[in-house]
Protein 1
Amino acid sequence: MATNHPEKASAHSNGQPAKAKVFISYSRKDMAFADRIEAALRARGFAAAIDRNQIYAFEEWWKRIEALIASADTVVFVLSPNSVASEVTLKEVAFAASLNKRFAPIVFRRVDDKEVPAALGKFNFIFFDDEARFEERADTLAEALHTDIAWIRRHTEFGELARNWSLADRASGLLLRSPLLEEAERWIAARPQGAAEPTKETQYFIQHSRRAAKRRRRGRAALYVLLVGVVAGIIAWMNQSTLEWFFTVFPYMQLEIRDHVLTAARERALKPGDSFRECAKDCPEMVVVPAGEFVMGSPEDEEGQVEKGRESPPHRVVIARPFAVSKYEVTRDEWDACVIYGDCPARGDFPRGRLPVMNIAWEDAQRYVAWFSMMSGKTYRLLSEAEWEYAARGGTTTAYSWGKEVGHNNANCDGCGSQWDNEKTAPVGSFAPNPFGLYDVHGNVWEWVEDCLHVNYEGAPVDGSAWKGEEAEPGKLGHDCDWHMIRGGGYSYKPSFLRSAHRDRGSSVYRDGSTGFRVARPLTIVPSGEGR
């Protein structure tokens, strides 16, 4: 059973901010306690109401429950032996989880940990099982519900807009337009640490809105080019751009990059394990990875698999030629060089230096490699998914490049035993390298790879090349390579996400506070024994 609110998400008619909206999931057998929680939340300024007052005569019951959940900022789950045995409350939890709603579990009567719904198991509980401390616990709950509430309200708002768009067969008239579209993009880039990730549906809705906006702009541009004033403006802009190129970008390219690019002879002389950097500073240091072969994926009995079948079937991949991989994840200083001398977007007022750049979309990473390829005259690109796993394993076959278990202080994650765990990124190179001399392939930030989204390895390439195509997961999110693979796990994720075989995905335009990348460069080295 549930509670929610009649108020809207924007503001009241008297100009006061709207109340935070709460949906309370509870068992009918715990109704007296739910009534008390509702009263306590109302007294503390929240919009909450028992469902028996919010579901009206002749309404379809479950559709109304779905609407209440969708419009809520947070789902408060009353944990008790009654609620974990209730099909209704478990159905409510499952639906809320499908919308990536924020949960606030509260304990009315204790239950065995194994009976707690999986969607709630990762959260801290607030205990109401001591009658004498009810008001104190209610204050604690209110404080938790107010955390990041501005961002959470936008999660609710954009989630409802995306859901309505999907229910209306993705009608173009329901897509976001300026300035709300820009607000949505800023919102998705500003996700607080620990906040619920926007659903794939919401991400795709915002992405599709941006594409529609670009199409509208192209249509208007076709008319504007007929106007002399606009043509003159374009010419003036081109002249300004040309001056900037010759007086700023060109000198930087020649002095800071081109003078440091490998000669053909130096490149041919490289051996596996050698490192090089094709700039004076602020570009990736590269390590030569040897040719070889490995089994990609994981056996069915490997512990820690998040989704059965995603890493299957295991298959042999041959990497025929050596190639270079950045020793570290691309840093913020390296990214800033592209911001200043290229067209990479700025990534906020984060500390600079040797911290990995984050909040990077796949399309942002493509901008960077295109820019540095142009500046250096050499080919830089993202790794293929096969190249990434080959390089991350470093010749090992265990779950991590150092062994079967995550161990202590080998990486930065939620449970890795480092000083940065689940708090922030670590400076690159803070942990020991893998056998190929690469740092931070496990944890710190997720790393984009070139490949489009594929739900498993059925039909995957066996030559190490990137896997393109239009396949997508059920639900039609990801057609035309709108989604790509990410690897390696991040500082706020559990150790299972850091395994060499783990695969995840994100939309091409989605930016996340724990997502970055590293780069690859093809080489003209002849593998040992070839050509003899």
Note: The longest strand covers residues 446-452.
Protein 2
Amino acid sequence: MRWEQKFLFPSYISLINFKISREKGEIKIEVKNKNMKIVLFILSIIFIINTTVLAGDVFILEIIHDKNEEIIEKFELKPGDIFELEHTHSAQNAYVNESFSLTKDGKFMLFEMKFTSQGLGLPDAVGGKFKLKDGKFYWTDINRIIPKLNIRVGNISRIKFKFNNKIYSLIDYVDDTDLVIIKARRK
């Protein structure tokens, strides 16, 4: 099956005179003017730059075992994507959930915490908004920028990384008291 479309414009626009045809599942573009080939080449370069550079950065978030620098897990994120860390506070034995978003320069912004108890090592209402709802404390509008996260994994804390409706228990990847580093790099 042959499909062909010709674009013919008035002769005073001699740059735009080309034909697109589709044969055997292939699309062929035939340009009849050398100047038009240059214009199409430049437009192609602009399109590539726009889709790779200007369309938004993509980052790789890596969870790294500090002991041997092995990448435990990695995820593709864009600025504004959200992930959570959930754990049991070691001193208070209380549930804690921290929500982070990725900034446009690849850092993490802690913007919300939820926890079930107050006390030693748990936050108070310093900056942001603080409220009690349904038996949980909510600390919102924190907006603290953190370049990377260094996390000591333990059997008591049972730290979980949550992203895209999936939960990754970090103790399943490393030994008790090992350090993991969470950081982002440009793709």
Note: Confidence is low (pLDDT under 50) at residues 1-7, 9-18.
Protein 3
Amino acid sequence: MNDTVIPPTRPEAASKADDLAAFRLDQSYATATRSRPLLTTIPVRKPGKTAWIFIHPGDQWRFSALVYEREVDRTMYLLSADAAQSIDGELVRAVNLIAYSDSDGNLALLPVPMPREDGSTCDWHESMRDFAANYAGQWLQIRSRRSLGAYVAIPSPVDRPAPSDPPMAINEIVKIAFKDRRISDRNHIVLRQLRGEVA
């Protein structure tokens, strides 16, 4: 026979358990415990044709730069002016890197080509500059129209709330986006390969 005696619950303990106020979460709990994901990768690319994107308006989300895009895999390198002068100018492109967010909240940079020094451009680049300027601050899709030889912007048919501003300044965004692809040394292996100095 089990002689264990279970002591009766004290009235004050029962009253505490019955008081649901002790279990209610404070309204600040979600904010206090939620943390933003650490951004370690930021793509530099034109979005896919089915992606809805929001181009962040304002010069504070734009960064003009010189880049080289490797043809075989479309990898883009950020070049200093001195590094750019060490390779064929046809390989170097001046771009405006513009911050945008997609509908999943992912941050990316849109490389918008600028006219060359002689003013030459093409309809593809001109159309991209046009909607980057005129459609910033709203949701849109970017589609290519080969019949036009240009890109077209498709505005969202419904009102969507604007995303939050990026969590860092444009300089930090560019640093992360090009974290191991920033070239300032003329003797960088990528530049030497382009000059034919190494295989």
Note: The mean pLDDT is 87.
Protein 4
Amino acid sequence: MRASNFRAIKAIDASKVTSLPPQPRLDGARYTKRMAANDLRLLACAGLAVAMAAAACGSDDNRNEASGAAGAATGGGLLQSDAALAEGSDEATAAAIVRDSESEMGADSSGPLPSRCTMPPATSASLKLADFGAVADGATDDGPAIGRAIAAAVAKGGVVAIEFSAGKTYRALSGTHTFGDFSWLLEGHDNLIFSGHGATLLLGPNVRGIWADGVNNVTVCQLDIDFAPLPFSQGTIRAVAAGTFDLTIDDGYDVPPDVPAPPSGVPFFGKLHRVAEGDLLHYYPGKILGQGARSLRITALDANQPTPAVGDTFVVPVLGVGQRGPEVMHVNQSAGVTIEDVRLFSAPLFSTYISANTGAITWTRVAVMPKPGTTRLISSWRDAFHVKDNRGPITFDTCAVDSSQDDAFNVSAHWMPITQLVSPTRVRVSRPYTAQLPQLGDTVQVADMTKGALLGTVKVTGRDPTTNQIDLASTITGLSVGTRLVSLEGSNPGTIIRDTKVNGTGLRLRSQVTVDDSSFNDGTVLVSAYDVEGPIPYDVQFHRSTFNHRYDPVLALMELSGTGTAAPALSGIEFDSCTFGRRISLSDVTGATLHNNDFVTGADEMWLAVANAHNIVISGTTDHGRPAADVISKISLGANVQRSDILLQ
């Protein structure tokens, strides 16, 4: 949050701040400057966040989301000046993490996105949207003009570039698709380049951005995306009574419609920014009713909602717009798609949904963030990057997520429940959402998620897509109706997140992924599986990354849902050359390596909490940059773990 754009915020309770200093939130102009400096290494500073919702679209378990979004509300974030760190203190030690931030960023720049859409030599045509009737005045519906340009590009064949006018705003109030209206409908359309030249795509409440399904070699670059009206409003609490509070909508935000009762079938929540504490919490309203010109009275859904105070800020979901799908950018069953130098400033639900792709999908210098120069507390109502059921590698390079309200990244696959045991080695399954039937030769992981138990892995020797039938190479003990399986080859193998910043939201990593040279602030990482999303995690690796959280004492949770009595199953967990401002929790883990990590926690804080785990290897640990004298004294041992399960090297 930029002080020049928002009222003063009270100081955070010092007891809630660890030795790794809080970071100011992402400044849009500076991030734009960073995107222009392609050779600069992205800053590694901050903490890690992930929501603990029980389903992809959220749940009533808000513990981590409540804390994970806190950075957006208190100035915790993505860029940090060395001058803000006190010399001669523990903060000075942590300053080394952020040494290059301001020097590399240079002066603020409010100019357009950098020019990066280089036309390949084989480009056969360049089409200007203006030639198809686009007005680009920010008011006229340019949706039909965009559709005509896409149709013309497809008709031409070859590699065709569709050009936006530099710095202009294109309003899209209409689109085409049966599953919501999309401004850019790409179904089987190949070899297209959308060159934004720093333009803005301003979407109407019923329109989304990009539907790319079954495409090859498509690039979208140099574009800002926003909504008008916004999918949320925002105001200041003026009065509080038992179970209710009165809210005055802040200038610059629309007054949302009344909500006499929560909509059925979907989570419907607002965000309470408690100024004194600095955190940003889920708050489920039972009613939202107008009380005058720009005033609302909000009644709590039940007694379990957090307590507001006069002067706190509340983010209001806009009924019929906010918390309603589909996603803004959809990439499915495609290959060779590149999204580059794109900023998304708001999203009614998911910002992106990246699913069932067969080839490489690359996101470079993509930011999901509140619009620079505004007082917005949130960006996306749900996940920024939702990654599901992909067979091709998904790469995120030099990206940023600030204040999305579920996960910054959810990297997972859908479990396929077994519906029929035809024989001990032949099963039929149901395929939810984007789940893909395993291919011949795939390795499937089989689990009983009622117990959090890994039953085994086995090769697929036969398949029948018409009946969702799968033949297995051998029997699996415990296989039964209701147990679940997932293809490991269809669980996002080769996913990489590198040089990326996350603030005020989190990571939910369930499948193989590598995280390099990144920074995460104010939240908790969850490496886990539950009965909808899998697989049971393996080969999840973090290298040279930095994590901190001011509001939750636990940074990283490695665990499985279920009874907790099953044998440890998470494997191949690795933290190498990372910095932690809070402790890590390792549960249900059979094989984790922590090498050359630095803990910059408070003096009395533990570093690791270990339970139901074995084969935990720890080496090269430092304490605020100095060799750690007694690592074992900073590890708490819980149930089903012995001292011999911890190997210190």
Note: The helical segments are 28-36, 63-68, 70-74, 90-95, 101-105, 143-156.
